[in-house]
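> example.struct
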């Protein structure tokens, strides 16, 4: 089936294209052209002057639709994935927070099953911990130092399914862990850390090239007695090629900090992530005995000592960057699609609207609300309010 999307502002790698069209066939983008003349045999979709952009790449998402990937069930995975897909996340890397080996292997088995399905939006697994600094991980997780025997066994069983793994770089054995990850072409990211510049410089050299949840669960500029020290945040800024991600839900970071990250790291080194918990895209609320509450549009620990995760979807991040941080729409979209696709090693198939890539396409209206989503050329019915 041939589909032609016309009458919209198309975001291409070269910039916005007006009065052109996107041709889709067999799940792939056949052509992005500056002509909107009707193609014989094509089903024409009128974008009604709205924005036609690439699908979002969700590289840090714990759950949604009332389910968490940590449940390690097929139902949880499918429900959470569907919840984010209708908000434009056409490529998803399910995130598993700090878990024992048995649970990681269960989640990996489900992830591999979904990856093998035709036209699946699941492109790999993201593991966070359990190799985390206990002082920075809070009381929600059981944490430990990197265990070489354990992580090598997990990765052997994963057989290429795990695409990213986060850890605290200051832990004993963390550098060997990062070197091993990079040897397997797995993105190694720092998280839940107290590292200062010397630590970050050594960690980067070992293979930790990405900073997860930038500004969150890591210190900034600080004092110890009468002297001042750079924190993890300043250290990451000083490593020019180190990439970052920000939880741009408008709650975890103020708009001024989002602008600062954009200004200093730029589009090609900044990704937008939700860090969404099971409550995202859901009417489900934490139970009365839960240690998490939802307040002011974000998840918090019940004692108000810390934020605990977001309830955002990928479209919320783009709206926040544009409407609150005053970032150009094209740049906000690139940070939600092109840059994460490149960092996660899938830019050959998604992240931009280009010939030969997966037909992962979103139509946004002028208020930046999702009006239609195609995942590998398949229209997502729950996301379609355009026609």
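> example.seq
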């Amino acid at each position: 089936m041939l589909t032609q999307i016309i009458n919209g502002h198309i975001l291409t790698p070269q910039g916005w294209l007006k009065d052109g069209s996107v041709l889709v066939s067999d799940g792939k983008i056949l052509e992005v052209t500056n002509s909107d003349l009707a193609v014989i045999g094509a089903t024409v979709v009128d974008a009604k002057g709205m924005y036609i952009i690439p699908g979002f790449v969700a590289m840090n998402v714990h759950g949604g639709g009332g389910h968490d990937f940590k449940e390690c069930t097929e139902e949880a995975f499918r429900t959470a994935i569907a919840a984010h897909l209708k908000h434009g996340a056409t490529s998803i890397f399910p995130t598993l927070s700090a878990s024992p080996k048995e649970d990681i292997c269960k989640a990996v088995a489900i992830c591999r099953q979904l990856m093998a399905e035709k036209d699946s939006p699941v492109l790999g697994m993201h593991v966070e911990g359990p190799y985390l600094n206990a002082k920075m991980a809070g009381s929600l997780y059981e944490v430990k130092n990197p265990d070489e025997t354990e992580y090598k066994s997990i990765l052997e069983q994963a057989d290429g399914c795990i695409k990213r793994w986060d850890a605290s770089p200051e832990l004993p054995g963390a550098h060997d862990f990062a070197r091993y990850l990079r040897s397997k072409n797995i993105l190694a990211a720092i998280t839940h850390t107290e590292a200062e510049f010397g630590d970050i410089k050594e960690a980067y050299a070992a293979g930790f090239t990405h900073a997860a949840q930038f500004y969150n669960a890591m210190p900034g500029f600080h004092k110890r007695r009468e002297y001042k020290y750079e924190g993890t945040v300043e250290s990451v800024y000083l490593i020019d090629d180190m990439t970052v991600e920000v939880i741009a839900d408008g709650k975890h970071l103020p708009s001024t900090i989002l602008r600062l990250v954009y200004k200093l790291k730029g589009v090609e080194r900044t990704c937008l992530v939700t860090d969404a918990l099971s409550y995202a895209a859901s009417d489900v609320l934490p139970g009365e005995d839960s240690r998490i509450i939802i307040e002011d549009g974000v998840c918090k620990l019940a004692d108000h000592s810390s934020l605990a995760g977001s309830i955002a979807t990928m479209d919320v991040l783009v709206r926040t960057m544009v409407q609150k941080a005053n970032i150009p729409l094209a740049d906000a979209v690139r940070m939600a699609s092109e840059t994460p696709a490149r960092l996660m090693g899938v830019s050959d198939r998604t992240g931009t609207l280009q010939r030969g890539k997966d037909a992962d396409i979103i139509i946004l209206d002028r208020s930046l609300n999702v009006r239609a989503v195609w995942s590998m050329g398949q229209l997502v019915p729950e996301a379609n309010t355009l026609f």
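> remarks
The domain at 56-343 is CATH 3.20.20.140 (TIM Barrel).
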